[in-house]
Every structure is written in structure tokens, then in C-alpha cells.
Amino acid sequence: MPPVRPAAIRRTATTLADGRELIYFDDSEPYVSGQRTRRLDDPRPLPDRFAPIPQPDGSLAPVTGPQMRRDPLTGDWIPMAGHRMNRTFMPSADACPLCPAREDADYSDGEIPATDYDVAVFENRFPALLAVPGAPPEPWAVDGEELWQARPASGRCEVVCFSSDHDSSFADLTPGRVRTIVEAWADRTAALSELPGVQQVFCFENRGPEIGVTLPHPHGQIYAFGYVTPRTRTMLERAAEHRAATGGHLLRDVLEAELRAGVRIVAESEHWVGYVPAAARWPVEVHLAPRRDVLDLPGLTDAERDDLAVTYLELLRRLDRFFVDGAGAPVPLPYVAGWHQAVLGEGRELGRLHLQLLSVRRAPGKLKYLAGVESGMASWISDTTPERVAARLQELA
């Protein structure tokens, strides 16, 4: 097996033509040593994304960012990002904006000007969350009705390209490359956590058209939220109740309870535990948590990061064999994999780092649709049992 930890990882930042940040994370020569540098200029004729917009009468109007509105029935904030309707949708490899620039062609509209890269991170061109410089932060009332509160959907959205190979997937990577991705996740979490107003950082990957992926190139995203998301808010409320009632830490106590029961444990290493949660709601759902109490990805030690690169890859490769077709061939699993990290304000001490991986596939050729009671009432009904899912993953070990 290749070494888990690259000899070194070189971080090189630059700016794209419209002002967005691009960062290369290199673990291969001659880039990691600095003998060569990835292409840093962006020749596209893109206007500055925050430049005033010319109007039909010749005047200039300031750029406006996305807004979000608060649902008075649930308290949830709902970002409104209409510009995302025009984002790139399922391009071919020769038109994919995440592929490196081709040496035999003019660099046109790709997001990464280098002809190759190891791991690259850049600000999303079509962000759901965006802090516009100089924009007033004050909330307002929609239609003048105080019941409907609105404010700017500030924050930041980034894209993490896991590989320059358009036809690859996360599970195809080496442990060394996954280790570089872990370093990129930690680096970006730390940096985004320092931005004004950010309350939560979420690193995640959507994989497969069944999930709604619009770019098949292997990549993930990072959202820096200017609010605490609904699921996290609920988890914090339950954690606070648990602490008041027992003095314990809810997420740690859940992990310890799963370890005591043992029946749903699907992966164990020196530093990590993977399990199917006792009340799993998705057809396939696995949580991966560190044994040690860790608040976020930057808090992981080198040993924990090394171990994660191996353990997570093993888990993904098993999940890709979870379902088989009529001929016995594996059916790749569509999934969402997201890192839950401690919030940055009140309630931070109640958080504990863990990965949640879920899939909508319930059988080969069949998906779980959120109809009736799930969509209408947020009342989930599972089509299987956690023990059955865990037994299948244990069988594949």
C-alpha cells in the first residue's frame, strides 16, 4: 500500500479572473518541492464579480447577493439563489469546468488553469451563500410584513476537486491522495471559520446523478453558513437536554452505546469507528466518528488524519459493493457524505466531529423517494433495519 501521509503537501493560492480564490494542494513532484508551480494566472475575460452592473439607462447598479428568508412556522432560514438555475449541468469531459486545461487547446472556461493538479479548491462561481462587500447586513421585512424576515445569505461556498481525472471517483483514490484531501478540508475549515459572521462549516460530497449531481467530475463542496442549519440546531437542542438530564455528552454517549451493543459496528481502527446508527432513517446510512472527542477537522492529529484516509477508503469501497445487479456485478452507490463539525458560537462545546454518509438507493434500480409523510410531515419510515444494513457491510469487510 502507498504511504498514507505524503512526504509534504504544498499549498499555493492564487486569484481567478473575476476575483475568486483558487488554492492548489500538491503532494507530487516537482510541485510539492517548489521546483515547479501550477499555473496561477487566469486568462479568461471575466469581469470582477463585485463590479457594478451597467443598466439600460447607462447608470451603474451595485451587485446584489443572494438573500434568505425565515420560515415563521419552523424558524428555518431558506436561501434564495435563483442564479444557480443557470449553472453548468452534466457537461462532457471536454467541456467540464473542473477538468484541468488541455495542453492542445485554448484555455476557455474551465475553473482550473493548470494542465494538471493533485487537489484544487476554489470559490464556487454559482454560490448559494455569498458575502458581498459593502452590502448592508441589516435584515428587512418581505413586503413590509414583520412576520416574514429576510437578510443577506452571506457566507461562502467552495468546490473541492478530488482529482484531475474526470472519470475517477473518491473510492478510486490512493490513501495518500485522500490524506491530502483531509488536509485541504482541515485547512479550509480553519480559514472559513475565521470569516466574519460564519457560524458553521460543512464539508460534503454529493455522488451520483440520483443525488442530483450536476458535474460528474469527482468533487465535493464546502459551505460556510452564516446561520446554524436546521439539523444542527435540532442536534444541539437534544445535546443540551441530554447534558442537563445526565451530565453526559450526547454524541460521545451515542458512540459508546454503539460500541457496547456491537451489532451495528461496521468498521473499527485505532482512531475511528464506523457504525449504522440505531435509528437510521435512510436505506443505507453509516456514521464515522473519531474515538477521541474532537470538535472539528482542524482538531484531528496527524495520526488520526492518516488513519482516516485508510478507514474511509475501505468503507467507501465496501459501500460500492453493497448492491449487486442480476449478474452479480456491483452497483455503484449514490451518496451524500458530510462532515458534521462543532458550531462556532453558542453550543460549540456540545458538538463532536463525525461523518454522516447516506444513500437514497434502497435496491438495485430502486430509489427511496421522500413522499407523503416524509416530505409533508418530516416523519420518516425506513424500508429496512439498521441491523440488516450493518450485517451486509460486515459481510463485505
UniProtKB/TrEMBL annotation:
Catalytic activity field: alpha-D-galactose 1-phosphate + UDP-alpha-D-glucose = alpha-D-glucose 1-phosphate + UDP-alpha-D-galactose
Enzyme class of the recorded protein, top EC level: transferase
Keywords noted in UniProt: Carbohydrate metabolism, Galactose metabolism, Metal-binding, Nucleotidyltransferase, Transferase, Zinc
UniProt protein name: Galactose-1-phosphate uridylyltransferase
Domain spans labelled Galactose-1-phosphate uridyl transferase C-terminal: 242-396
Co-factor(s): Zn(2+)
Gene3D superfamilies in alphabetical order: HIT-like
Entry's family note: Belongs to the galactose-1-phosphate uridylyltransferase type 1 family.
Top-rank lineage group of the source organism: Bacteria
Annotated metabolic or biological route of this protein: Carbohydrate metabolism; galactose metabolism
Molecular function, one GO term: UDP-glucose:hexose-1-phosphate uridylyltransferase activity
EC number, UniProt record: 2.7.7.12
Ranges of compositional bias, category Basic and acidic residues: 38-47
Pfam families: GalP_UDP_tr_C, GalP_UDP_transf
Region Disordered, residue ranges: 31-70
Domain Galactose-1-phosphate uridyl transferase N-terminal: 66-225
